[in-house]
Design a protein that fits this description.
Elements (H helix, E strand, L loop, with lengths): L3 E2 L2 E2 L5 E6 L5 H11 L4 E3 L2 E2 L14 E2 L2 H9 L3 E7 L2 E6 H9 L4 E4 L2 H10 L4 E6 L3 H11 L4 H16 L6 E4 L3 H16 L1 H6 L3
Parallel strand pairs: 3-9, 3-10, 4-9, 5-6, 10-11
Antiparallel strand pairs: 1-2, 5-8, 7-8
Length: 204
């Protein structure tokens, strides 16, 4: 017998994974999706890195100490986690399970390794990779945003090469050359998968 809620067939929420190399515009795109689809749940990651300028606890990330993060690793509370650039990042399994069980679709902003972990645990999730127009364009974006040291930029560029090389398991790729076009393409994918008929017609 199908699960029901308020007399209607209960729909399990869909999980949309969005990944990209740092500086590709992933956060801007995800923020645009949150405005376009206000009913779409946004999974806020936990991290041990300090907040950047204008970042707010509980809105951009949950900022927690190393000790608290490692305790949750031991307790098996992360759906995915990783240590990147010396800091921990993780997604709460309980948060994802509760939202999807309640029929909420979720937008998840994570890196390639995290996406692989999520896909392994939630194989029905939809994985979307955001590509820069070129590595040179990515380097320019990282320098122009003025938030990282030269050493940090070099580390992020090296990491970007690895992330781009591992993108083959994603269901879709979007090249973020013009942000307006990338926003429309990502919104179109989400709408297609959220629509029952569109789910069948969505293509790579």
């Amino acid at each position: 017998m199908p699960d029901t809620k308020h007399g209607q067939p209960h729909r399990k929420g869909k999980l949309f994974i969005v990944s990209a190399a740092s500086g590709t515009g992933k956060t801007t795109l995800c923020n645009a999706m949150r405005k376009r689809f206000p009913e779409l749940a946004y999974s806020i990651s936990h991290t041990t890195r300090p907040p950047r300028k204008n970042e707010v606890h509980g809105r951009d990330y949950y900022f927690i100490p190393n000790e608290a993060f490692e305790e949750k690793i031991r307790a098996g509370e992360w759906a995915e986690w990783a240590r990147v650039h010396g800091n921990y990042y993780g997604t709460s399994a309980r948060q994802l399970n509760e939202l999807m069980a309640d029929g909420r679709d979720i937008l998840l902003d994570i890196d390639v390794n995290g996406a692989r972990q999520i896909k392994s645990r939630y194989p029905e999730s939809i994985a979307i990779f955001i590509m820069p127009p070129s590595i040179k364009a990515l380097e320019d974006r990282l320098r122009n945003r003025g938030t990282d040291s030269e050493d940090e930029i070099e580390k992020r560029l090296a990491h970007a090469h690895n992330e781009i090389a591992g993108r083959s398991f994603y269901d879709h790729e979007i090249v973020n050359d013009r942000i307006e076009d990338a926003v429309e393409e990502l919104a179109g994918l989400i709408m297609a998968y959220r629509d029952k008929t569109g789910t069948q017609s969505a293509t790579r």
